[in-house]
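Hi C.,

You asked whether I'd gotten around to modeling the 451-residue construct. I have! Everything is below, sequence then structure, no commentary in between.
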Amino acid sequence: MKKAIALGLSAVMAAGLVACGSPSSSNTPASTPASGSTGGEGEYAGQTLKVAAIETAYGTAMWEKIAEGFEAKTGATVELTTDKNLEDVIDPQMKAGNFYDVVHLATGREKALPETMLKENALLDLTDVLDMKVLGEDVTVGEKIIPGFTGNLTTNPYNDEHVYMMPMFYGPCGLFYNKANFTEGGGELTLPTTWDEFFALADQTDIPLFTYPTAGYLDAFIYAMIPEVGGQEFFNKALQYDEATWASDEMGKMYEVLGKLAENTEKSTTANGNNDNFQKNQQLILDNKALFMPNGNWVIGEMADAPRADGFEWGFMALPAMEKDGDRYSYTFFEQCWVPSGSSNQELAKLFISYLYSDEAAEIFAKEGGAVQPITGMTDKLDADQAVYYSVYDNGAKAAIGTFASTKPVEGMNFKQIFCFTMDSVVNGNKTVDQWWADMQDACKTMAGAM
């Protein structure tokens, strides 16, 4: 299930954050030279770069090969640290003044180390990395990164033009469906590009239009709807609980769509929308008992052995646009890397980060760990199953990225319950969609006061 795999942001994530949250410990030595070398020939020979990377289901071999590749190109020595509980290894070291130069560790984890360092202004500004040439290539880092993966509240946490966290492995979330039902797979239905076209399908088929594994999966779904109705700045304000944004006409349009979705949701969805039975809702797609389902890339592997209708083939798309030729969005979880401001080798750290976006590094990540970088054109190098979902941004969709701003604890407030799980009540007829919208406005007002 998604939340068991990628609660904080990524395993793309199946391999990312969930595994990142694993309580098991690592047998990896706390710190080892990547290749056993003491450096080589090159401009940076004699320099040592301390790199720390979370050990996830992607494994550690990919990081070892990345380190070796960087050593070969620069002559530097990479001292690599990997651990499943990376915070427990590096936090005491940094508190003692022994800083790492590059850290791959995402936000959204229980111990919130990068979030704490951001609050303490302890991360290095990496904005200039976007204008650096990728090591070994004649293109800049910014030119290689898929639009939308910087300039969001995760990479630009102070909501300005400055990047402090660089985007790493990602996993799109959107709508999964059976291609066989649509013309692209030999069926009779036309894949919808707008919400009007989506709801018009109800007159063309007896299959219910919508299901969801649990209402908790609607977080990424709603995140993608918000910029569709109001754009990126509107999205950023919404994630900061802005009262006017949540009361706006644009947000009203979003809740109108959510209300229609509730009316077109397969009736058993809410009964099975829990940790024990969520796969029954996912099975609805495979059995042609629901047309569309929001989910992340892990669902293909999660349902790999499940029975399915004859001719079934996974399809994946961004959310339909609010209007003809409007922007379509797919939310993505992604991991991040960063540089502590206490790093003693900042120039080399930035060069290492530029190397992470090279074709050579991207191939290592994909081949050794199945991890995919947000690099334009990367989907051409993936297998068919991976390409199903990773190609969504190559087909014109924009990336919605970011999560609600962190706040002080608010007693009695279960924000996620209001934000997502009210959908169950609307589907069951226990609440109206207008009541849901009003509840959300009240919740955001409360949360804004706790920022």
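If it helps when you're writing up: The chain has two domains: 2-163+339-375, 173-331+409-448.

Thanks,
B.
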